[in-house]
Amino acid sequence: MTRPGITKVRRFAARIDAATPAHRDRTVDALRALAIVGVILGHWLVTALVVTHGRGGTTVADKSPLHTMSYLTPVSWIFQTLAIFFLVGGYAAARSYTGGYRAWLRKRLIRLSRPVAVLAAFWALLATGLYLAGVSWPTLHTVLTLVLDPLWFLGVFIVLTALTPPAVALVRRIGAWSALVPVSVVAIIDLARFGLGGPSWLGWVNVVAGWLVPYLLGIAWARGAFKGVKVPALMLAGGVAATVALVLWAGYPASMVGVNGAKISNLNPPTLAVVTFGIAQAGLALLLRPLLARWMRRPLAWAAVATANLSAMTLFLWHQTALLAVTMGGLLIGRLPGLHTAPSSPLWVAERLAWLPAFAAMLAILWAVFHRAERAPRAKRPAPVDGKRRPRPAQPVEHSQPHAGPTVEMRAIVAGRTGPHRPAGDIRTARF
Questions:
Q1: pLDDT of 9-34, one tens digit each?
Q2: Segments forming the whole domain that contains residue 411
Q3: Would you list the DSSP string of 213-249?
Q4: What is the dihedral of CA 424, 426, 429, 432, to 10 degrees?
Q5: Total number of domains in the chain
């Protein structure tokens, strides 16, 4: 990058830093950004779309390198960061909810629904076109599953958001110990499924109960728990010990993500092993707060995190589309190693790593096209009266959620709607 470019980036970062309220806990945003990066990189690394040519035409099948190269299992321990999402989600919900349940829930659901509706409409049209163009159903099924499967996360998040008032009441009553209630539910369900031969559908109870654990921990964090290092350290140590014990002696898989062909998935639906692993992750995240706080005092680092948070939903929803766009576009050249080939050796891993910049570039293009769907429509200016234009009505100031999302001024800076003639003022929390 040229010197003028570097200067421009530094000025941009300084403006983002100046627009951030002093009381904001930037570590919350840092954890959310790390979680989104973990999910994206994890999907890009463990999703292998293998292209084969046969009598029935060209087909695409989803294969996992974790199935063919089990020694890569520790990768899932690094990139499976869903518990951090729910930890931060519980924190943000507890900070923002102060009453008026219906209006509060409606506002949050609208924020989630706008970008999802855009993704659904895009893929409905594209899938119809691909089907009419003769793409085989097995290939189309693989593609749509890859794109739409991550949406289960949003469904669970909506359910937990709706349960925020009773969850807050439970935490207010017994503190962080409230997380032991859903942990017990998950343990009982697993015992019924795996130990007593119960029906497999019981596991779906764990979809809500399992992710309620970090959500409750996030609420407890928002209410002032975990101020020292003792409890987070116990969470980390206890979670790791419990997870190791469950894997070594209770028959749970070592992988913390689903693996194609595996008899049991820790993630679909969640098992006790992924819950204890999530407790360990939450403990580690809480222990890292001082380090993250120091890191976030650097304007460049904070600007990157704040910008990522402004478009977290867009990045999450479209990252698999980016992978598919590069994969399908590569077919125009031919069957490319690391992109269309089976993950059968360490060489494939090196080849896949080389494709990550291409996936990231495509995601940047999709972000540029679709990120505006995350923003609420701007208020219209009143019609001119006597030739004078009235100012836009002031937007409500959401004092109740000072840590939940980027500020309006930060959004304006990223969108390029501010300049030296528009000082950073009237800072209000965003609807995120």
A1: 888 888 988 888 888 899 999 999 99
A2: 404-432
A3: HHHHHHHHHHTT---SSHHHHHHHHHHHHHHHHHHHH
A4: -70
A5: 2
